[in-house]
């Protein structure tokens, strides 16, 4: 019997990616209970897609061990976030004085981010990730999307160092400088965070999956090639709903500077909401069993900050609590996902 293609899609959201890790950790724990005590979630999906913080997580989950299986558990990914987040987003006192609120140049120095990425990924290449992936960025020079796909990186034209891919997908405007990176072929790109067009990359992941010969790529004859929507289980995880509202009075005579931050906030959340709306409609056209194979997991932030760069100990604690609350309220759904992942292994 043919197996379904299992896709995991991870939204952007800076340090709020901690919430994603908490949800994934619970699913991984269920996989360990029902299938393998050493299960790692990277081995239970056939394609993982991510934007920004979700792109970083994608690379961590698909990092290969010596046997070309997933090296890191979600617990280890969560540790990386909690420990390295503060050094990535740290803004020195002096930088704060000469560049208040990031008005005059990018809010955060990219040097800390680049150092942390080098520490984790060293010279790992995109082609060496354990499964097909889709990591988003946007080319501001060519003015088009740049998608990093491990299954297409067998050519040096499409192969990159993973640390550079992560630098590109996390180059959020107003937070980090654009990433100037080169493919292993030597072609240079100037890239920013893929959140400008796909903060929720689930629809991009579905489109990418449609053109992959999975039986060949995964060396599994039971996996369908070029799968259609009936062949796909899609799990899409957000980094917390942002309910910040904006009044007419506040923006009645607002100029460009006043609009920058709210506009980015609105673009990121509206993009994610639109993708979810479209996928809900697409899966809604299927039969009763297959329409249940789309899962949008979007927690509430509760007491956590919606800021992507708030790495205070208090906020990290609140992000973890928000994730735990979501797990507690949605245990049946998460258990169901784990069972489907094992069934289609």
UniProtKB/TrEMBL annotation:
It comes from the Bacteria. GO terms for biological process: lipid catabolic process. SUPFAM superfamilies: FabD/lysophospholipase-like. GO terms for molecular function: monoacylglycerol lipase activity; phospholipase activity. Keywords: Hydrolase, Lipid degradation, Lipid metabolism. A motif (GXSXG) lies at residues 50-54. It holds the Pfam family Patatin. A motif (GXGXXG) lies at residues 12-17. Residues 8-206 form the PNPLA domain. The active site is at residues 52, 193. InterPro entries: Acyl_Trfase/lysoPLipase, PNPLA_dom. A motif (DGA/G) lies at residues 193-195. Belongs to the patatin family. This is Patatin. The lineage of its organism: Bacteria, Pseudomonadati, Bacteroidota, Flavobacteriia, Flavobacteriales.
């Amino acid at each position: 019997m043919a197996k379904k293609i299992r896709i995991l899609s991870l939204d952007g959201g800076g340090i709020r990616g901690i919430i994603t890790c908490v949800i994934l950790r619970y699913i991984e724990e269920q996989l360990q209970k029902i299938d393998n005590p050493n299960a790692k979630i990277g081995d239970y999906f056939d394609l993982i897609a991510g934007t920004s913080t979700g792109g970083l997580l994608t690379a961590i989950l698909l990092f290969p061990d010596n046997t070309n299986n997933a090296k890191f558990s979600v617990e280890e990914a969560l540790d990386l976030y909690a420990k390295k987040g503060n050094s990535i987003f740290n803004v020195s006192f002096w930088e704060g004085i000469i560049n208040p609120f990031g008005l005059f140049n990018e809010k955060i120095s990219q040097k800390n981010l680049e150092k942390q990425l080098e520490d984790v990924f060293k010279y790992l290449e995109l082609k060496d990730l354990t499964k097909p992936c889709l990591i988003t960025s946007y080319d501001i020079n060519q003015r088009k999307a740049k998608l990093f796909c491990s299954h297409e990186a067998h050519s040096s034209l499409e192969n990159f160092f993973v640390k550079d891919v992560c630098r590109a997908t996390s180059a959020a405007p107003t937070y980090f400088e654009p990433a100037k990176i080169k493919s292993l072929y030597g072609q240079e790109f100037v890239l920013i965070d893929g959140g400008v067009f796909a903060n929720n990359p689930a629809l991009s992941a579905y489109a990418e999956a449609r053109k992959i010969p999975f039986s060949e790529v995964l060396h599994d004859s039971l996996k369908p090639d070029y799968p259609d929507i009936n062949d796909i289980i899609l799990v899409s995880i957000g980094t917390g709903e942002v309910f910040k509202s904006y009044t007419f009075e506040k923006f009645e005579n607002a100029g460009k500077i006043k609009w920058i931050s709210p506009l980015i906030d609105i673009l990121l959340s509206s993009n994610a909401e639109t993708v979810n709306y479209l996928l809900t409609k697409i899966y809604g056209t299927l039969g009763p069993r297959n329409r249940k194979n789309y899962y949008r997991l979007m927690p509430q932030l509760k007491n956590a900050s919606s800021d992507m760069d708030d790495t205070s100990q208090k906020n990290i604690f609140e992000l973890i609590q928000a994730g735990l609350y979501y797990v507690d309220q949605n245990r049946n759904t998460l258990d169901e996902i784990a069972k489907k992942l094992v069934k289609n292994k």
